[in-house]
Amino acid sequence: MTVPARLSARCRALVLELSRYLDGDLTPARRRTVERHIKACACCGTMAARLRKTMAVCRAEGKTRPPRAVMSRAAERIRALIAFEARRPVAAGKPKRALMRKRS
After folding, report:
1. DSSP assignments along the chain, one per residue
2. What is the residue range of 92's domain?
3. Over residues 40-58, mean pLDDT
4. Residue 31 falls inside a structural domain
5. How many domains does the chain have?
6. Is the pTM of this model over 0.70?
7. What is the pLDDT of residue 96?
8. Residue 86 pLDDT > 60, yes or no?
C-alpha cells in the first residue's frame, strides 16, 4: 500500500510518534490510542509494519561483527589520525583538549 499524498491530521500525528511507539516509549494510554489507529487505518498499519521490519533488520545488522580486514583498516586509520593530531601545533594559549572538542 502506498501512503496517500495528504495524510489526515490524526495520521500525521501518529507517523511522528510511530518509532517511539515501536520502541515502547509511549505512555500506556497513548500506546493504546496508537494501536487502535493502526488497526483501523490500513495505511498507518502498513507503515507501522514496514517500520517494525526495518528496525528489526537494522538491529540484527548491528549485531554482526565487521570482517577482520575492515576492523584492522579502521584501527590503522584511527591510529594515523591520533598521530596526526599529536603532531599538529597548538594555538597559543589554548589547550589541545579544547581544540579537539571544538572540531567534533
Report:
1. -PPPSS--HHHHHHHHHHHHHHHT-S-HHHHHHHHHHHHH-HHHHHHHHHHHHHHHHHHHHHTSPPPHHHHHHHHHHHHHHHHHHHHSPPPTT--HHHHHHHH-
2. 68-103
3. 90
4. yes
5. 2
6. no
7. 53
8. yes
